[in-house]
TrEMBL record:
<dbReference type="InterPro" id="IPR019533">
    <property type="entry name" value="Peptidase_S26"/>
</dbReference>
<dbReference type="GO" id="GO:0016020">
    <property type="term" value="C:membrane"/>
</dbReference>
<dbReference type="Pfam" id="PF10502">
    <property type="entry name" value="Peptidase_S26"/>
</dbReference>
<dbReference type="InterPro" id="IPR019758">
    <property type="entry name" value="Pept_S26A_signal_pept_1_CS"/>
</dbReference>
<dbReference type="GO" id="GO:0009003">
    <property type="term" value="F:signal peptidase activity"/>
</dbReference>
<feature type="active site">
    <location>
        <position position="52"/>
    </location>
</feature>
<protein>
    <recommendedName>
        <fullName>Signal peptidase I</fullName>
        <ecNumber>3.4.21.89</ecNumber>
    </recommendedName>
</protein>
<feature type="domain" description="Peptidase S26">
    <location>
        <begin position="280"/>
        <end position="364"/>
    </location>
</feature>
<feature type="domain" description="Peptidase S26">
    <location>
        <begin position="21"/>
        <end position="171"/>
    </location>
</feature>
<dbReference type="GO" id="GO:0004252">
    <property type="term" value="F:serine-type endopeptidase activity"/>
</dbReference>
<keyword id="KW-0378">Hydrolase</keyword>
<dbReference type="InterPro" id="IPR036286">
    <property type="entry name" value="LexA/Signal_pep-like_sf"/>
</dbReference>
<comment type="similarity">
    <text>Belongs to the peptidase S26 family.</text>
</comment>
<feature type="active site">
    <location>
        <position position="139"/>
    </location>
</feature>
<dbReference type="InterPro" id="IPR000223">
    <property type="entry name" value="Pept_S26A_signal_pept_1"/>
</dbReference>
<dbReference type="GO" id="GO:0006465">
    <property type="term" value="P:signal peptide processing"/>
</dbReference>
<keyword id="KW-0645">Protease</keyword>
Length: 386
């Protein structure tokens, strides 16, 4: 019997090298997939476009927002161009299709949302986009699920205890001067008092007053500085008195921006509540008085079928609901610039499934009103966010 102990291996055919375009295509595909995964599961870059968080965060700050803290969400809208949000870059063309909408789940994170956290979330009152593609807002969480929130003369109380006001938070003041002068203008610049709606960011006298009065947002420390200046006649905090109802605050405007404001309660931006923040598993009895508080949750946020609101009642398939058990946690968010922030005082609670992540680091800061040589705010680079 013939046995073959050794046989020459046939020569391998040389591998055909990849072409130039295929090399680049593979590299770009890998980069897009890697960037998409990083953006979804770990960190994402954001910028501050409005002054609602001044002076804690400034217009022109660029942030890293951690998805790891609270856990990344599974995509609700899978048909989306990678690395886009609502539109294709530089256009008004939608970057997604909402033909497929999936249930959203949150992977485990390493912390819960805490009072005082600076949080990025999808603003819940938008309905022209799916929940995970609504406009990103950034605010400070002042009350978590189950808390009872109250604002008394601009101070926040939670469960009856006064909360620490962020040291860089701002309020609006009226600065009355005998006449506009360079000392005041220079002091505004040195103290960081900015009006982003004015040319160059320099505050201008308010034309509603007969004398030169500036209506500006500033910290309490900055206000104390201006009170001591000889070129300032007076400085007054723009405080709303207790008991004076503002029709545009929640729940007087129960379905912002779709409802017609009406004075249901005598709350205002500076004197608000008490209001309990809903918690998953909590059951409430529905009454004509609290329907405006809970109607958006039941009708819009918790994906219930057949919900309508009519004559002060919430109905499901035409049958009035007398009680309701919440399916998820909710949060109350406020901007640190307390008189220039569209926040939960106006449109209500933030659902847990709208939470994007925690703002953790300022990696770049650009002053939109500075000259070319002073655009970068070097002192803010790589600052952590408190």
């Amino acid at each position: 019997m013939a046995v073959t102990f050794w046989k020459k291996k046939p020569a391998e055919q040389p591998t055909k090298p990849k072409g130039f375009w295929r090399e680049w295509g593979d590299a770009i595909l890998f980069a897009v997939v890697a960037a998409t995964l990083i953006r979804w599961a770990t960190f994402e870059a954001y910028t501050i476009p409005t002054p609602s968080m001044e002076h804690s965060l400034l217009v022109g700050d660029y942030l890293f927002v951690s998805k790891l803290h609270y856990g990344p969400r599974t995509p609700q809208t899978p048909l989306q161009v990678p690395l886009t949000h609502q539109t294709l870059w530089g256009t008004a063309i939608k970057s997604y299709s909402d033909l497929i909408q999936l249930p959203s789940y949150r992977l485990p994170g390493f912390s819960e949302i805490k009072r005082g956290d600076v949080v990025v979330f999808n603003v819940p009152f938008e309905d022209q986009h799916p929940a995970d593609l609504r406009t990103n807002y950034i605010k400070r969480c002042v009350a978590v699920a189950g808390d009872v929130l109250e604002i008394k003369q601009q101070e926040v109380f939670v469960n009856g205890k006064q909360q620490v006001t962020p040291p860089q938070s701002q309020r609006r003041y009226f600065v009355d001067v005998p006449q506009p002068n360079d000392d005041l203008k220079n002091a505004f610049q040195q103290q960081g008092v900015v009006d982003y709606y004015a040319q160059g960011g320099t505050p201008q006298p308010n034309p509603a007053f007969n004398t030169p009065v500036y209506m500006v947002d500033m910290t309490a420390t900055t206000a104390a500085f201006f009170k001591k200046q000889p070129y300032v006649r007076s400085i007054v905090n723009d405080a709303t008195e207790p008991g004076k109802a503002e029709a545009d605050v929640f729940p007087n405007n129960p379905d912002y921006p779709h409802s017609t404001p009406a004075p249901l309660v005598n709350w205002n931006r500076d004197n608000y509540g008490p209001l309990q923040v809903p918690k998953a598993g909590q059951t409430v009895q529905l009454t004509a008085q609290n329907v405006p508080i809970y109607q958006k949750i039941i009708q819009r946020y918790e994906h219930n079928e057949g919900i309508t609101v009519a004559n002060g009642q919430i109905l499901q398939n035409g049958t009035p609901l007398t009680s309701y058990t919440f399916k998820q946690d909710y949060y109350f968010m406020m901007g640190d610039n307390r008189h220039d922030s569209l926040d939960s005082r106006y449109w209500g609670f933030v659902p847990a499934d709208h939470i994007v992540g925690k703002a953790v680091l300022i990696w770049m800061s650009v002053d939109p009103n500075a000259g070319l040589g002073g655009k970068i705010r070097w002192s803010r680079l790589f600052n952590t966010i408190d």
